[in-house]
Specification:
The chain crosses the membrane at residues 44-66. Pfam families: HHH_3, SLBB. One of its GO terms (cellular component) is type II protein secretion system complex. The chain is α/β, with parallel strands linked by helices. Among the domains are: 91-146; 167-230, DNA polymerase, domain 1 (Orthogonal Bundle). 38% of the residues lie in helices and 10% in strands. It has a 3-stranded mixed sheet with strand order 2-1-3, covered by helices on one side. Strand 1 (91-98) and strand 2 form a beta hairpin. It is rod-shaped, with a radius of gyration of 60 Å.
């Protein structure tokens, strides 16, 4: 056999016939590759488990959020209530006259005072007797605020005694005017005027019994007036 060539007809040695060294050489290259593969598979498996765990956690969070949102949306909302509008302030109508710039009727807020009524009427004139008024008095509806001039008699205080009305509410026959006398029972404007005429013609009344001298007043009327008038 030339050149050391193996004849084609010569059979190849079987693996079993190989020596231990030869088998170890054949197996050695595959051994490291198998170890690295198993390690890589283990790493892939662990990574997959981690990813699956994260996905499960995220899914649980999303499901909880969706369920919570659904529960919140199902809670009925309380009906909206609107605050009541503030009530408009009450007004009083007063009549301001006398020594003011613009006498007349004025609407003012409830709780305003005489000084506010005078201001609404343009203020005092130069001849006004300012000291004759109680500027701090609270106004009443339908009140008349009369500002006197210097030298004039001050007006009767609102709500106070009328002209000719004595202490205790008795009507003074010698100082009462027509309006005061007209407030007496069974004494109308005609009889009140007769009382004034008698007083002017005969002088002051000296007693309540003098009313019998007035035309139209008899015993019955006198008895009804006796406890209401004075002289």
């Amino acid at each position: 056999m030339e050149g050391g060539a193996v004849p084609a007809s010569a059979p190849l040695p079987s693996v079993a016939a190989m020596s231990t060294d030869a088998r170890s050489l054949l197996a050695a290259p595959g051994a490291p590759a198998g170890g690295r593969g198993r390690s890589a598979l283990r790493r892939i498996g662990l990574g997959a488990l981690v990813l699956l765990g994260l996905a499960a956690a995220v899914g649980a969070v999303l499901v909880g959020a969706l369920r919570g949102g659904g529960a919140a949306s199902s809670v009925p909302l309380a009906p909206a209530t609107s605050s009541p509008a503030p009530a408009a302030p009450s007004l009083v109508l007063v009549h301001v006259l006398g020594a003011v710039a613009r006498p007349g009727l004025y609407e003012l807020a409830e709780g305003d005072r005489v000084v506010d009524a005078v201001a609404a009427a343009g203020g005092f004139t130069a001849e006004a007797d300012q000291a004759a008024l109680n500027l701090a008095q609270v106004l009443a509806d339908a009140q008349q605020v009369q500002v006197p001039r210097v030298g004039e008699a001050p007006p009767a205080p609102p709500g106070g005694a009328a002209a000719g009305t004595a202490a205790g509410g008795l009507v003074n026959l010698n100082t009462a005017d027509l309006a005061a006398l007209d407030t007496l029972p069974r004494v109308g404007p005609s009889t009140a005027q007769k009382i004034l005429d008698w007083r002017e013609s005969n002088g002051p009344f000296t007693s309540v019994d003098d009313l019998l001298a007035v035309s139209g007043i008899g015993e019955a009327t006198l008895e009804g007036l006796r406890d209401l008038v004075t002289v």
